[in-house]
Amino acid sequence: MNTDEIKKEPMDNNNEAQKPNQNSTTGQNKTDEALKFYEMLAKKKESPAKQIIFKTLTAIVVSIFLLIPLEMSKSLIEDRQDAYKETENNVGKKWGTMAKLMPVFKIPYQTTNGDAVSSNYAFIFPSRLDAEINLNCKPFSVDRYEVPAYTADIKLKCELTKLEETIRNTAYSQIKDSELQILTNGAELVILNSHDYDCEVISTLSLNASPNTDSLSFDNEISINGYNSFSFVPSGKYNIKISGNRFNPSFLSSSILPNERSTNDSLFSANWQGTITKKYTADEMSDLGHLMSYNAETLSVSLLNDMPDYRMAERTTKYAMLVIALTFVAFILIDLCLKRNINPLNYILTGLALVLFYTLLLSIYEYISFGWAYLIAAVMTIGLLSAYTAMMFKRKRSGIILGSILSLLYLYIYILVSIDRYSLIAGSVGLFIILAIVMFTSQKVINAYEKKK
Fold first, then answer.
1. Whose CA, among 19, 147, 319, 379, lies 20 to 30 Å from 3?
2. Is the four-CA dihedral 114, 120, 125, 127 of positive or negative sign?
């Protein structure tokens, strides 16, 4: 056998042994290429843009769902308001209504035109009015509500001069050129309480005037029960003083502000002086209610009660969707940074906790001041959501970030609710700043997320 042939056989055997290894390497390469292809498809399916859209749509759907419990919270506030008004009305029926007093001279007269004689009344407001009113306040507690009631002790001095001239001007359409006889001995001072367009006579006082006098006067004391507010209708040249034992009265409902006023921890006093040149007169009692509802200036004192002003809680609910939206935006941004997929259930539970804040605020507000109630409800909500966020993202830093955002947000809303005069400008500028921060922060997070992907 040739030596060269012997040498070739091992080489052929080696080539045959290497063929399976080459085949296995080629198969492995194809498998790796297939895996890379499928990974690329998966990345295309789960692109950053689609993930952001999915998370945003989830937040929007949950926010719409949260409108249902939010409306329930608003209706609860309305129910509390209605319950308190019903309590006030019940106290008013048993004790006395909100007083809006006006003294009016009721003067009988006769007109003679030939053989025809007719009798009528003229209702004329005093040309001079002095009153000293003391409100003895004694609140009524009914269930959980307190209604500020009072007894008004009134020292009243009224005067009306130039009777014939005034009555002729008042009832010119009935009198014209007829002979006028004023029956001053039957004249009375009527104390009216005005309600909307109606007038209720609460007292009729005889003047015992002489028959031929051209002026009428009254000097006496009367008392009346009422609640919540006291108003007095001045006329002519007036000097009226109202005082009482209430520590927090308000004069803002008065169409004429007091010339002087003073308040301390338990007492208040206010004094009005001036002249009303327009003469309020009427031919019939029913005309007075219409007249007072539209044209009469009033001096008013509102006895602010210690019960909550539910309007503050109602105004707070108007910013609920702002809090929910910004909280969900914070969730999405934290989720993108940490690459943790938030379950829609997490959004729902977080939203319900944010809505529950308003029920907590309302329930606590009925027992303490609005500021303390707001603080307690906010601390409870922020503490719960901060702990929940830290557990959800498994990082304490996430809970601290969300807690800080909610703290600033609740502080901002409290400022808006507390101020009335500048609430619109403060709200507009604040929302603009918040929107700018969210826009630039979200864009930075999205850019960083897309780079990582």
1. 19
2. positive
Domain annotation covers residue 113: yes
Examine residue 430 and state whether it is found in any structural domain, yes or no: yes
What domain range is 161 assigned to?
96-303
CA atoms within 13 A on the CB side of 419: 12
Task: Identify which of 386, 381, 347 has the alpha carbon closest to the alpha carbon of residue 364.
Answer: 381
Report the side by side order of strands in the sheet with 260-263.
Answer: 216-227, 149-160, 128-137, 236-244, 268-276, 260-263
d(CA 77, CA 265): 31
- Please state, as a whole number, how many other Cβ atoms lie within 10 Å of the Cβ of residue 81: 16
> Which tens digit of pLDDT belongs to each residue from 239-288?
999 998 876 788 877 888 888 888 877 788 899 998 886 655 555 555 56
Q: Which helix (H) or strand (E) holds 146?
A: strand 145-147
Kindly give the interhelix angle for 344-365 and 310-317, rounded to the nearest 10 degrees.
170
Q: Which two tokens stand for residue 88?
A: 């006030």
* 255 occurs within a structural domain: yes
For residues 235 and 280, the answer to whether their CB atoms sit within 8 Å is: yes
User: Strand, coil or helix: what is 96?
Assistant: coil
Please indicate, yes or no, whether residues 339 and 386 belong to a single structural domain of this protein: yes
Q: Which residue has the tokens 């939203």?
A: 351
State the Cα–Cα distance between residues 180 and 214, nearest whole angstrom.
Answer: 13
Tell me: the pLDDT tens digits for 309-347? 678 888 888 888 988 988 888 888 887 777 777 788 888
Check whether residue 111 and residue 164 sit in a common domain.
yes
The pTM of this model reads 0.62
C-beta neighbour count of 339 within 10 angstroms: 10
